[in-house]
Specification:
Blueprint (H helix, E strand, L loop, with lengths): L2 E8 L3 H12 L5 E5 L4 E8 L2 E8 L5 H9 L2 E8 L3 H10 L10 E2 L4 E6 L9 E6 L2
Parallel strand pairs: 1-4, 5-8
Antiparallel strand pairs: 1-5, 2-3, 3-4, 6-7, 7-8
Bound molecules: zinc ion.
The site of zinc ion (ZN) has 6 residues, from strand 1 and strand 5.
Length: 133
């Protein structure tokens, strides 16, 4: 595992949050992307070697909408960059972690991604991501 690639933050109003994070970080987002597989709009801010990803569901029953209903806006997941996602999934499953999608899917920002269930990671939703070459 290489580094914290990004931190995902659930938002309910992208325009409002975009203004807030632009003010907070002192720079505008560098990328906006729709991720069909997750049913979300995303906005990315660069922060040194890491990024902040704002996530907003584009439908009322999307996972981010449901998350906000339960827990409110804010921290959603931590994403860790890996070189070989298939290897890491097998390694983590063998170690007893619960992998939500054992077959990596296409995520935002040209990455293959998979999520680990928070129940197996001390309450943190963990995303593994591997750059697609
Ligand atoms: Zn993410």
């Amino acid at each position: 595992m290489n580094k914290i690639e990004h931190i995902g933050i659930a938002v309910s109003n992208m325009e409002q949050s975009a203004k807030l994070f632009e003010l907070l970080l002192g720079k505008p987002a560098y990328k906006e992307e729709i991720v069909e597989s997750e049913q979300v709009n995303t906005l990315f801010y660069e922060l040194g070697e890491s990024k902040i990803e704002l996530l907003k569901s584009f439908n009322a029953d999307g996972t981010i909408s449901k998350f906000i209903e339960k827990k409110g806006e804010g921290f959603h997941h931590i994403a860790i960059a890996v070189d070989n996602i298939v290897f890491e999934i097998e390694r983590l499953q063998a170690a007893g972690f619960q992998v939500l999608n054992p077959i990596p899917k296409k995520g935002a920002d040209n990455k293959l991604i998979c999520f680990l269930h928070p129940k197996s990671t001390g309450g943190i939703l963990v995303e593994l991501c591997q750059e697609i070459n």
